[in-house]
Every structure is written in C-alpha cells, then in structure tokens.
Q: What sequence folds into this?
C-alpha cells in the first residue's frame, strides 16, 4: 500500500478524467452569471439532442469571461450579458447573435424599507451595491441612473462594487446593503424570500441584451455552432422564457 | 533557532546514482514552478506603460489604502496580540489550549470562510452587528474599518504565534532574577522580555504585516470592493485583471517588490539572532 499510495495520489491529481470521458466530447461554454439556471436547463435538452456531448459551463461576470477568452482560455462558446464584452473579445469570436433580453430592477432586503423607488437610491445614508466597471449589469445600472439624473448622488452611496450580478444579489439578500441593481431574472428561488423587487421606473429604455458567439479557434466548430443555434433558437427560448428572460 | 553548520551540507557518502537524478529533476521542476510565474509577470511589463499606470487614481488609491489598512492591522495585531501571546506563554489559565488553537485557526482557515464568519459576527444582521450599528453607530461591513478588522483577523495570528514561541523559549529565570531585584511586572516586560525577544517581535511583525498587505478573501467577503474605501491592492489586481490587465501587472509588480524587500529584511534579521 505504501508503494502504490503515491501513484494513487498522482492518478487522483490528473490524467483520469481523460480516460473516463474518452467517448464524450466536452463543449465549454463561457456564460454570463445571470444565465446560470436557464443554461443548466438548456444543457439537459442539448445533451439529449447531441448524445456523447458533455456541456461544461464557466459562469462569471461577462467582463471576466472576455478577459479569460482574450488570455486564451479554452472555450467553445461565449454568451455575454452585453455587446461591449463580445466586442472586446471579438479577435477570437465569430459573428454574434442576440438571443435574449432582460429587465433591470432594484432589489432590497425584506424588512429594510429604506428604498421604495429609484429616487431613494440617491437619498443620503442609503447603502447601495452595484457591479464594478465593465460588468454588464453595472454598466446598465449606471446608464439607468444617468437617465434618471441620479448618477452622481446614487454612486456616492455605493458601498461595494461586485464582480458579477450574483455578488450584488447575494449582498442585498444577506441584508448588508439597503439596495442593489440587478436583473429581474436574478431573483431566483434561493433568494426570493429575502428580497423585495422595486421596479426601476423611468429606466425602461435601458434593455439588457444578451449576445452569443462561437469561439473561432474552437477545436469543435460544428458543435460550437450547434450550441449557438440552439441558444438563439427554439431550445434556448424554451429554457430562457420560464426563467423570466425576454425574447430578443 | 540553532543554525546548522552550513546551508549546503554534503549528503552522506554512498552511490548517488538514480536517486540523485530523480531528486534533481523533481527539485528542478519545483524551481520552475516558483520561478516561471515571476518571469512571466516581468515579461509582461511595458516600462512606459508601468509609469503611466502609477498615475492612475485607482492605483494610487489602492496603494494608499493598502498601506493604511495593513499598517492599522499590524498595529492592532501588536496592541491585542502581544498581551495575548504573553498570557498564552506566561499565565496558566484554564482553557489555554483551546485559546491557542483558536488563535492558530485563522492561519489555516480559508480566508473567504473567515470573511463569511466575520459577517456572521459583525455584519448588520450578525451577532453583534445590530448592537454595533444601533448602539454605537458603527458599521463594519463595506467600510475601511471593516477591511482593517478582516486583515487583523487573518494576520494577527502570525504575530501572536511567533511571539508566543519566543516567550516560551525565553528562560523564565531572567524574569525571576529581575523580580527578586524588585522590578515591577511592567518594568520586567519593558527592560528584560522585550529586548530579549526583539528578533522574534520584528519577524512576527513583518509576517503579520505581509499577510495583512496580501489579504484578499476575507476582505472582499467582509469589506466588499470599493475604490479608496475597501479596494486594497490585491482586490484592485483582481478587478483590473478583468478590465485592464496592464494595471493588474503594475500593481502586481509593486506587491512583488514589497514582498522581496520584506524577505531580504527578514533574512538579514534571522541570520543574526
């Protein structure tokens, strides 16, 4: 046993997955954090339609994914929550397609009544969490505040800038902030009991728009294209609509 | 710290053969693992870009804030940590083993868990958070004070354990002799104990400060990420990696230089006890 233990450790560290999945093809999808539940639903139908394919996801803020793709991270498909991050990574991407839209909302903790309307975000003493520069939901939030003439006052209330939308929702759900700006679809089962949703009245023209593109140097271009087609087609709509996403 | 006669003692005589070859190859792989990332970082630097990055307000804020937070955390670690180390080394109180384990815990605990635990204790809905906010008007999460608390939580144990080990290694007869000569407790600590463990105090302080300077997980969890308030250098590096890699490289180089300087200083101190 003493002799084979190091070998077992080595085997555990690496090597084995290749052996296990020799018959399966992995398709890596880098996807905006807000798409998580919908894409996990799509994974099931896509894998049923494509036997032998294993879809693996890398969920993060789209700006982080664009940076990773530019650094050469292995990915076959990139689904971004805005056009800017697709544009940033375009050196490695095929033509993008719009596949869904979303709605910007204000989330607040249940039991904390400080924020009842967008204007309250600018009230002195309100603790606001939004996403950092470059993070799509943060860019949409700043554009919406700009539109309402609240940008400067509201940004002065920001206590933390998160790396993705779930960071915003999590901090608000924990009650550490009085409000945050997120997508309507982020009020998921896990947090809905702890969150109030306040409509972002007056910012309806800021429409979060999702785009997907295949990575051009993907080792399996046909499969990547098939996933893009599925996401932008009926299977995608069937996964996205029940989660509250709007059609493109 | 009894130093060996020499750093590079020759191996026992015998047939070197295959064993040496294997050891050498694995050791070489280890050196590559440690050296290559540094080379990669340096290779990424465009000197002109580096200077431009230092002028960026976000980078200057991160630098200033990191210094403030890490120095405050180091000061707090000394102010609270020295009495704790002294109590652990010199006062036989019940539950000492438990306290010792508690102090060591943050050194092995994943920092992000430390951050979550700090939220559970001092967050607005934590055990003490309501009292802090409504009783004292203090909010720790997402404030600079919170960043200091997070850094102290992870860094102070390095000071406490280093100093406690030194105190335990100190011959108690020195203190007894001073006491028989009529010196007060305070005087003994000031004139006998502190000078005797000076190298360990400095080493503990340096380790503690370095850990505070590099703190990431507990800080981003408990103190959030806001420029000029809680976005210390490691947080700024992380954010910049996603939006402006040049800034991330510039910040990383500063932290690397600080770490190297600290290592050099520590070596100087540890070499001559």
A:
């Amino acid at each position: 046993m003493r002799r084979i233990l190091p070998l077992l450790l080595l085997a555990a560290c690496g090597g084995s997955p290749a052996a296990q999945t020799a018959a399966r093809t992995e398709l890596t999808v880098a996807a905006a954090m807000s798409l998580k539940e919908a894409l996990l639903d799509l994974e099931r139908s896509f894998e049923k339609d494509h036997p032998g394919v294993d879809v693996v996801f890398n969920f993060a803020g789209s700006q982080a994914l664009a940076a990773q793709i530019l650094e050469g991270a292995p990915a076959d498909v990139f689904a971004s929550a805005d056009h800017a991050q697709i544009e940033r990574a375009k050196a490695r991407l095929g033509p993008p397609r719009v596949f869904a839209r979303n709605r910007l909302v204000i989330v607040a903790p249940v039991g904390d009544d400080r924020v009842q309307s967008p204007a309250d975000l600018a009230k002195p003493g309100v603790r606001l969490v939004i996403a950092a520069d470059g993070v799509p939901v943060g860019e949409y939030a700043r554009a919406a505040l700009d539109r309402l003439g609240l940008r400067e006052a509201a940004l002065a209330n920001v206590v933390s800038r998160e790396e993705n939308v779930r960071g915003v929702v999590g901090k608000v759900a924990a009650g550490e902030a009085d409000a945050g700006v997120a997508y309507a679809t982020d009020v998921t089962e896990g947090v809905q009991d702890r969150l109030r949703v306040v409509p972002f009245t007056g910012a309806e023209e800021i429409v979060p728009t999702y785009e997907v593109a295949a990575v051009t140097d993907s080792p399996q271009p046909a499969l990547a294209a098939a996933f893009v087609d599925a996401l932008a087609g009926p299977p995608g709509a069937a996964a996205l609509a029940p989660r509250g996403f709007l059609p493109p | 710290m009894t130093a060996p006669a020499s750093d590079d003692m020759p191996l026992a005589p015998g047939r070197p053969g295959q064993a040496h070859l294997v050891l050498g190859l694995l050791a070489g792989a280890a050196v590559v693992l440690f050296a290559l990332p540094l080379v990669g970082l340096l290779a990424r630097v465009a000197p002109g870009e580096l200077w431009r990055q230092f002028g960026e307000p976000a980078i200057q804020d991160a630098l200033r804030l990191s210094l403030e937070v890490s120095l405050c955390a180091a000061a707090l670690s000394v102010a609270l940590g020295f009495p704790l180390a002294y109590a652990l080394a010199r006062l036989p109180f019940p539950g000492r083993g438990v306290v010792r384990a508690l102090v060591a815990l943050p050194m092995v605990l994943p920092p992000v868990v430390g951050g979550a635990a700090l939220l559970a204790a001092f967050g607005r809905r934590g055990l003490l958070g309501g009292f802090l906010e409504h009783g004292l008007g203090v909010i720790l999460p997402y404030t600079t004070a919170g960043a200091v608390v997070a850094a102290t939580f992870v860094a102070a144990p390095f000071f406490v354990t280093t100093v406690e080990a030194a105190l335990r290694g100190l011959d108690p007869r020195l203190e007894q002799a001073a006491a028989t000569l009529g010196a007060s407790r305070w005087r003994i600590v000031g004139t006998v104990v502190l000078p005797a463990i000076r190298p360990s105090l400095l080493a503990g302080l340096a380790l503690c400060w370095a850990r505070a300077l590099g703190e990431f997980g507990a800080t981003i969890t408990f103190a959030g990420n806001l420029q000029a308030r809680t976005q210390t250098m490691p947080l700024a590096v992380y954010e910049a990696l996603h939006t402006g890699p040049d800034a991330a490289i510039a910040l990383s180089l500063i932290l690397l230089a600080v770490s190297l300087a600290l290592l050099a200083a520590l070596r100087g101190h540890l070499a001559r006890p």
In short: The two ends of chain B are 8 Å apart (CA to CA).
